[in-house]
Amino acid sequence: MIKQFLLALVTAAVFFAGSLTQVLAESGADLLRLVDEIRAPANNFQFHVKVSTGSKSTLTMQVNVKDQSKGLVRYLTPKKNKGRSILFVGRNMWVYIPGSRRPLRISPQQQVLGGVSSADIARTVYSADYKVMSVNADSSREKTLSLKAKSKAAAYGRIALVVSAKDTRPLRAKFFSANGKRLLKTAYFEGYKSVLGRQRPTKLRIVDHLAGKATTTMHYSKYKLKDTPGSWFQPSNLHRL
After folding, report:
1. In this predicted model, what pLDDT tens digit does every residue of 104-138 receive, in sequence order?
2. Is the predicted pLDDT of residue 20 greater than 50, yes or no?
3. What pLDDT is stored for residue 9 in this prediction?
4. Extended strands (E) in 138-197
């Protein structure tokens, strides 16, 4: 009788633990989806981003996003970089430099300027590359989502994403190396303004821990809904854009 009771108790505990894990996973995925909806206003849209360091180095780019899984970054300024582009399709990335014979494959970790990587610009949602491992309520005001890369193609091994407990606004994030141990950079989501119907960050301040905590800033502007032609997202067509 006692053995049967203990067996039933253990079975119930295992079932409860599994159910709790599933609930947490669903809750975490829902939270990440809400964060992505703030960062990306639609499946298809366009915006401009100005990337600058503490020096006089500045880049201005136009970014077109299609189906959330494709990103085309076109350099606008300075003049010497105009015509250059970065293409992100699924987990594959290319760079095209005017005068070159064909686009070159690059990694999402490829630096663009300062502490900003190609993925930081072209990738607008986290859920495409990362899964939620846990959600911790740090206080009544903040929650931390622990994200782990779904594959080695992701730019970072893991991310500690802090969001507002009230409205899931992303506040800051720590990005770690492929093995998840080395802190590479910290990003701060700032300059919240009403953009396409809701409050969104218009500034991302990145602190590079591998470069003496040098700061690079990304300013977002000119958001608009736009369904970009699918042909723009083919590597073989980059030289025609």
Report:
1. 999 988 889 889 999 999 889 999 999 999 999 98
2. no
3. 42
4. 142-149, 158-164, 170-176, 183-195
Domain count, the chain: 1
Q: Which of 100, 98, 96, 93 is nearest to 117 (CA)?
A: 93
What's phi and psi for 19, nearest 5 deg?
Answer: -65, -40
DSSP state of 93: E
Q: How many CB atoms lie within 10 A of CB 26?
A: 11
Q: What is the tens place of the pLDDT at every residue in 168-198?
A: 999 999 999 999 999 999 999 999 999 999 9
Specify if 10 maps to a domain: no
Tokens of 29: 């995925």
Q: What is the CATH number of the domain that holds 42?
A: 2.50.20.10
Contact 65, 45 (CB under 8 A): yes
What range defines the domain where residue 162 resides? 37-240
